[in-house]
Amino acid sequence: MKNKFQMMNIAFVLSSTGLLFGITANILRDTPTLIPIEVFLLLANMVLIFILERTKMPFSGLLF
Questions:
Q1: CB 3.0–4.6 Å: which of 19, 31, 36, 58 could bond 42 by disulfide?
Q2: Comparing C-alpha atoms, which of 34, 12, 14 is closest to residue 25?
Q3: Quick one: how far is CA 2 from the chain centroid?
């Protein structure tokens, strides 16, 4: 069970890193249209990380 939580944490960290890279790339390219979407996805990522760390409930087979 611990490995599944570690895999989810790694997935959240990698997706957050990708979103931060996308936001900075859009700022540097001066294309502000996608920035609000990426900020929303980044905030959703942070909420999911918080929920996962707070509850630590076992998966019921929905994800794996």
A1: 19
A2: 34
A3: 19
* Run of H or E residues at 3: helix 2-28
DSSP, residue by residue, 11-62: HHHHHHHHHHHHHHHHHHTT-TTSHHHHHHHHHHHHHHHHHHHHH-PPP-SS
Angle, nearest 10°, between helix axes 2-28 and 35-55? 160
3-state secondary structure of 7: helix
Q: What kind and span of H or E run contains 10?
A: helix 2-28
Q: Burial level of 3, CB count in 10 A (0-12/13-18/19+)?
A: exposed
pTM of the model: 0.73
How many residues belong to the chain?
64
